[in-house]
Amino acid sequence: MKIGILGVRRAVLACAVVSWTHLLGGQDSPKLSISGLGYLRYGYQLGTDSSLGDGAHANNFDVDRAYINFKGTMSHGISTRITTDIDPGRPNTNQLLLRLKYAYVAWQPDGSALTWKLGEIQTPLIEWIETLWGFRMQGSVALDRTRYLSSSDFGLSVSGSWRDNAVDMAAGVYNGEGYNRVPGDQHKDVAARVSVRLASSDAPGTTGGLRLTGYGHLGASNGGGTRSRFAGILSWQAQRLTLGTELAVTRDSTAVDSPDTHGRVLSAYGVYNVPTSPLSLLARVDAWDPDTEFEPSFPDPKQSKQLRIIAGVAYRLTPDVRLMLDGDFVSMHHGSPNNAFEANRRSLLFQTEFRF
């Protein structure tokens, strides 16, 4: 299997980050840790594919994602991280993409609750939702899947938590195009998330308890068009049960004088961890309206409403390996626009998550 290697510029950035970190650390030798995370799957399409000679059901083994993390820590609150991302992002080929997901230097001043990051860094919201939902192995979360937000981008950010994670925030300035797209023009995006715990539970961390979370994102697309996103999330997380509902509204345009397109994403999900058992039950519903002000009379992926339903059961084989069997069903208003959508909209998936 061939592996296409992209992003020489990003590799140079990663080397620069490591060199800068070494200089900031003086003569101290950094402590290096290496870890990995992978998502494997077997997918069976419940619908037949007319592009196959006998109209068969497409089914394949695949690697959804594979990450290698290199993390360095040293004195004066300095740390670094480089994460490689292997992604089967080339349809109809036998190639994987090898690219950088993260490459940054972080600084948490002594006695400060704030951490500053510079480079290819996490964006404020997606990783937080993935931690709450807990099943990135199934696929990306709604705002990432619909391509309104990216989990990583180039920029400068600050994050912090107070009162034992009762208040948690992250904010930053970013290129705005995401880590997996060509960088944009001179415009930059500003994004921020604040999460407030309204009641405690037996779950630790920045997602535990009853929480109200708000997110704002203002920027401009290439050419000076509008790019804004606003989201609100109400969630409950305990050791046994996780519930979350999020509503996001978006506004986009391709140029200063072009009309705005208003979108809306609603996602609701729940996870029940069976007591004294390695089993978990999960369900999620995503409703996406790409254009709230227009509804075509025929199925159109860019304008028609779409509904996704996910349901499954997960089994924790070991602390570092999870197995999951789930169904993923997508429907579009007024039917399917083409055979490719119809053949892939109902999937039965067997998925594996492993860590080391």
Considering the chains and any ligands shown, give keywords for the structure.
356 residues, mainly beta, 16-stranded antiparallel β-barrel, 17 strands
Description:
Helix content is 10%, strand content 54%. By secondary structure, it is mainly beta. Strands 2-3-4-5-6-7-8-9-10-11-12-13-14-15-16-17 form a 16-stranded antiparallel barrel. A hairpin with a 5-residue loop joins strand 13 (261-273) and strand 14. The radius of gyration is 21 Å and the shape is globular.
Gist of the model:
The chain has 356 residues and is mainly beta. The chain has helices at residues 8-24, 126-133, 142-145, 339-344; strands at residues 2-5, 31-45, 59-73, 78-87, 95-107, 114-122, 152-162, 167-174, 189-199, 209-220, 226-237, 241-252, 261-273, 279-289, 306-318, 321-332, 346-355. A 16-stranded antiparallel β-barrel has the order 2-3-4-5-6-7-8-9-10-11-12-13-14-15-16-17.
Number of helices: 4
| Net shape | globular
The helical percent reads under 10%
Round the Cα radius of gyration to an integer and report it.
Answer: 21 Å
Largest pleated sheet: 16 strands, antiparallel, barrel
Strand content: over 45%
Q: Helices and strands in order, then pairings?
A:
Elements: E1 2-5, H1 8-24, E2 31-45, E3 59-73, E4 78-87, E5 95-107, E6 114-122, H2 126-133, H3 142-145, E7 152-162, E8 167-174, E9 189-199, E10 209-220, E11 226-237, E12 241-252, E13 261-273, E14 279-289, E15 306-318, E16 321-332, H4 339-344, E17 346-355
Parallel strand pairs: 1-5
Antiparallel strand pairs: 2-3, 2-17, 3-4, 4-5, 5-6, 6-7, 7-8, 8-9, 9-10, 10-11, 11-12, 12-13, 13-14, 14-15, 15-16, 16-17
